[in-house]
């Protein structure tokens, strides 16, 4: 009887502890990477013994790439545990700034987000993503001037026949206000003009589905979604949306994929980021997933969008 | 064996063990209750403190937040935080879906209890249980793949509309309404039916004039519970409603609700930013509304006579 009482007490205590742990949430994952041990060495892909765990969170667009890289990284370093969560760029930046994850992924510069101490974060540009306006194949155009593109998205032009296409009403497909894809598109394709109202969806797959099924629809997608004929990517001023044109700086709509660390990364995080930036990943995974390797870029951009 | 222990001790021992069991059981259930209360209070306090920051720290007027129709939080020069279109959207889909689901659910309940209690229940009960089990993302996906093109081609507009959201939500809240309404009808005393029939009323007269009025408080509770679920549903609605920031001018216009704006934007915003805080304020609004729904249900249950 005494035993049973003790067990029940234990159970209740355990339940309370689980509960309070769940409430405390982030506190016990404060710095899981500090137990990562390695010889301090700039060559992260070398065979020195790495161990420990790494928590990464942030941009859902980057999640597949980073998760795939993490898998290969773990295969090479069996003692390492890398966890990649997706929660959105804002979540990634917030969590890395407060120290609850080791790396925060973002598809916008930290400077562009409110409430993030950008000077405390170190930016690692792991890849570049190109984006283009995409239309339903039936609207009958595949090239648009930047001026007209702005007019389409601000609602000045409402029918495709004004642009030499079919007599179809233009249907806008937007992203949520705070989305990184939207921010990039508004900044570099629309010159900071606010898009008119339209259907708003978050997931790129849903956006693609809507554009391909709705007559007269236009939206914007990353290059990696132009895998079939269900949507038509638009050239801007005659410049085709291709990797080469982005690399040469001819096609303007692109953004970096950032991995942020708080201060200089610890040994394990550094090894992982170096691995992400190594030719091994940049020429295989990055390309396979539809991104443009950062190392191939002939132009650079700062947080204000100035080209270098 | 038993005889070797004196009765006095046996009694004391049995009393002891009974007391132990009592205390243990009492402790277990008290702990469960305390954890539940703690969780609810903690969520309320957290949501309250987060949601009020928009007004206290960021200085946005609560009146503007609730009544203004202009929502443009990312505009660098003059961001606008008017959540009225989303509040309106939430109420619109909630009431419209209740309008569809209430007659259907109550009708089904009457069919199950009064018209065909034997086979009606056997067929309808599993159907309803199945409807409960379908995850909301599946409802949303079916809505997006089937209903949206159907509305676009047969009714007009883009397909993404209040109407589509209403239809999806009606199906989602139908099981809630039906099962509670069925319990309400089934729990009516048989004497009511027999009395009415004995007075010469037909079956339909009995249902309409006696049974429905007698069960009405619980039937209303069923509808309000369904509305509470509709109000809080996010995923399925987000996939079919279009999520635009303007007020809809007709039922086939795209719209947005509080929940869809929260799920669309939460991941992209940074903690502590105004955008993030306004999303918490919307969450607080949802919580206040669900308290209101609970109050309505309490009021209705208090009126229950039978």
Task: Describe it.
The complex is a heterodimer of chains A (308) and B (306). Chain A is elongated, with a radius of gyration of 23 Å. By secondary structure, chain A is of the alpha/beta class. Chain A folds into two domains: 36-129 and 256-296, Periplasmic binding protein-like II (D-Maltodextrin-Binding Protein, domain 2); 130-247, 3-Layer(aba) Sandwich (D-Maltodextrin-Binding Protein, domain 2), CATH 3.40.190.10. Helices cover 32% and strands 19% of the residues of chain A. Residues 21-47 of chain A have low confidence and may be disordered. Chain A starts with a helix and ends in a 15-residue tail after the last strand. In chain A, strands 1, 2, 3, 4, 6, 7, 8, 9, 11 and 12 form a ten-stranded mixed sheet that branches. A two-stranded parallel ribbon of chain A has the order 5-10. With 306 residues, chain B is mostly helical. Chain B contains eleven helices and two strands, in the order ααββααααααααα. A two-stranded antiparallel ribbon of chain B has the order 1-2. In chain B, a hairpin with a 7-residue loop joins β1 and β2. In chain B, α3 runs parallel beside α6 (162-186), α5 crosses α6 (162-186) and α10 packs antiparallel against α11. Chain B is flat, with a radius of gyration of 26 Å. Chain B starts with 6 loop residues before the first helix and ends with a helix. The mean pLDDT of chain B is 88. At the A-B interface, α1, α3, β7 and α6 of A face α1, α5, α10 and α11 of B.
Key attributes of the depicted protein:
heterodimer; A: 308 residues; alpha/beta; D-Maltodextrin-Binding Protein, domain 2; ten-stranded mixed sheet; two-stranded parallel ribbon; 19% strand; B: 306 residues; mainly alpha; two-stranded antiparallel ribbon; 75% helix; flat; transport (chain A); lipoprotein (chain A)
């Amino acid at each position: 009887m005494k035993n049973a009482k003790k067990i029940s007490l234990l159970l209740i205590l355990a339940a309370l502890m689980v509960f309070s742990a769940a409430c405390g949430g982030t506190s016990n994952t404060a710095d899981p990477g500090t137990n990562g041990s390695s010889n301090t060495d700039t060559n992260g892909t070398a065979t020195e013994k790495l161990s420990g765990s790494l928590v990464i969170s942030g941009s859902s667009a980057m999640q597949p790439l980073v998760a795939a890289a993490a898998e290969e990284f773990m295969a090479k370093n069996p003692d390492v545990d890398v966890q990649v969560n997706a929660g959105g760029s804002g979540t990634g930046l917030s969590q890395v700034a407060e120290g609850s994850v080791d790396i925060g992924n973002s598809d916008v510069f930290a400077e562009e987000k409110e409430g993030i101490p950008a000077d405390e974060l170190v930016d690692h540009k792991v890849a570049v993503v190109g984006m283009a306006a995409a239309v339903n194949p039936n609207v009958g155009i595949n090239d648009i001037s930047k001026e007209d593109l702005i007019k389409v998205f601000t609602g000045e032009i409402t029918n495709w026949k004004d642009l030499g296409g079919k007599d179809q009403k233009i249907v806008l497909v937007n992203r949520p206000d705070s989305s990184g894809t939207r921010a990039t598109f508004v900044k570099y394709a629309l010159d900071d003009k606010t898009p008119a109202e339209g259907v708003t969806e978050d997931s790129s797959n849903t956006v693609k589905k809507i554009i391909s099924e709705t007559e007269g629809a236009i939206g914007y997608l990353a290059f990696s979604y132009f895998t079939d004929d269900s949507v038509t990517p638009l050239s801007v001023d005659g410049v085709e949306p291709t990797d080469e044109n982005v690399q040469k700086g001819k096609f303007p709509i692109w953004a970096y994929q950032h991995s942020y660390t708080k201060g200089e990364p610890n040994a394990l995080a550094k090894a992982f980021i170096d691995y992400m930036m190594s030719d091994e990943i940049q020429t295989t995974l990055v390309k396979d997933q539809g991104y443009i390797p950062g190392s191939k870029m002939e132009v650079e951009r700062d947080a204000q969008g100035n080209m270098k | 064996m038993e005889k070797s222990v004196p009765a006095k001790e046996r009694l004391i021992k049995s009393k002891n063990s009974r007391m132990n069991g009592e205390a243990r059981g009492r402790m277990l259930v008290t702990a469960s209750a305390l954890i539940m209360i703690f969780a609810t209070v903690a969520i309320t306090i957290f949501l309250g403190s987060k949601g009020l920051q928009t007004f206290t720290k960021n200085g946005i007027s609560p009146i503007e937040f609730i009544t203004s129709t202009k929502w443009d939080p990312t505009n660098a020069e003059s961001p606008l935080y008017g959540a009225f279109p989303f509040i309106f959207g939430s109420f619109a889909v909630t009431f419209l879906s209740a309008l569809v689901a209430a007659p259907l659910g109550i009708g089904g309940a009457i069919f199950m209890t009064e018209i065909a209690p034997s086979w009606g229940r056997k067929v309808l009960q599993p159907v309803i249980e199945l409807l409960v089990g379908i995850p909301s993302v599946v409802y949303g996906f079916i809505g997006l793949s089937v209903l949206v093109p159907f509305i676009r081609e047969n009714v007009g507009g883009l397909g993404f509309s209040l109407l589509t959201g209403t239809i999806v939500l009606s199906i989602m809240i139908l099981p809630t309404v039906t099962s509670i309404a069925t319990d309400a009808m089934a729990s009516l005393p048989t004497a009511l039916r027999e009395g009415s029939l004995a007075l010469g009323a037909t079956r339909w007269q009995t249902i309409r004039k006696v049974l429905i009025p007698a069960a009405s408080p619980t039937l209303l509770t069923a509808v309000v519970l369904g509305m509470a679920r509709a109000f809080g549903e996010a995923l399925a609605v987000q996939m079919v409603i279009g999520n635009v920031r303007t007020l809809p001018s007709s039922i086939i216009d795209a719209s947005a609700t509080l929940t869809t704006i929260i799920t669309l934007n939460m991941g992209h915003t940074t903690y502590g930013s105004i955008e993030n805080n306004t999303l918490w304020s919307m969450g607080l609004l949802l919580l206040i509304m669900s308290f209101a729904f609970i109050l309505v249900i309490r009021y209705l249950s208090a009126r229950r006579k039978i």
